[in-house]
Amino acid sequence: MASKTFDEAGLALSPVRVSGRSFDWTMAGLSIWWMGGLFIDGWAHSNIPQLETFFTPWHAIFYSGFLAVATALVVQVLLNLRQDAGPELSWVALIRQNLAKRSWHKAIPRGYELTALGLLIFLVSGFGDLTWHTFLGIEKSTEALLSPTHLGLATGLGLSLSGPLRAAWRRSGSPSTWRELAPAIVSLTFTFSLLTFFIAYADALVHLWPLVDSSGSATSGITDILLTTGLTMGVVLLMMRRWKLPFGTFTLMLGLNGSMMAVFNPHALIVASITGILSGLAADLLYRALQPSLKEPGSVRLFAFLVPLCMYVVYFLDLVITGPIYYHAGIVWTTPFWAGAPIIAGIAGFLLSFVMIPPTGEQEEE
Length: 366
What we know:
The protein has helices at residues 21-47, 57-85, 91-101, 113-136, 142-146, 148-161, 163-170, 178-197, 217-242, 249-261, 269-290, 297-327, 335-356; strands spanning 2-3, 16-17. It is mostly helical. Helix 9 (217-242) crosses helix 12, helix 9 packs parallel to helix 13 and helix 10 (249-261) runs antiparallel to helix 11.
């Protein structure tokens, strides 16, 4: 579907291609394939020390997911060009004509312009990654998260995955149901998980510092909690700013993310998944009870404080129960550390709410 825009003189400009939700569903669904390949590859880099080649089954899943997403976008662009040109031109002539006129980009669905750029960045970074591995070898553990070519892949992947989110954001209206928002929620969940993937070395759900008996475990753990809180609440507040979210949004986002992040430390799966699911459910219940909105800054600030507070209360309760059973260890942090960690996480979320809704002062009377 295309909608025309007009200049100040009332003359019609090039049509704006509006994406449909069916295409959003296609892109969100194919992103599952792509993101699955990423996390499988992350597991391999973290758990297979003898990994010495670029050509692996998990790379095949990862890069074939890219091809699937790229193919879907190219096909949609070609269909849009065909719709505008009519059936008279052959496909070859249609492609040549639009390449010659450099007009193909006008057929990209609205919201997916950066997806096209992301796919190009990913393709270039993929060739760079092959060259990097050929001459410098395969990175292990945290090195793989800091490799320049991997960061290039992450940039391209992030721009691509967020296409359904941008498309939904730019549509008029205020949808509030799963039927209307599911592709956007899936898109944002994957974008959030991509960000946590690349800070896995500082993720509180991956590294169970409260169970580690060492002098620096508490300071490392508190740092991880603050970083994870900042990232989580930044994404949560962004979603709240645009839409009234359906119940279950946060359970999906945090539960799926916690389970996926366990690829970096399979022993942490129980804690990561249970904490993600229960804290997401708590966030959904708080959201329903408080009804935070831009018109009620106080409710937003209270929500932003309580969500990370609940998340890390659940986290420590989870460790108290599962630590002796599955890890043969209890919490070794002193009381000020484990009791204060949820509160400082809540304060971090509270402060971030001022970025979403800055305080406003009354205008001074002249």
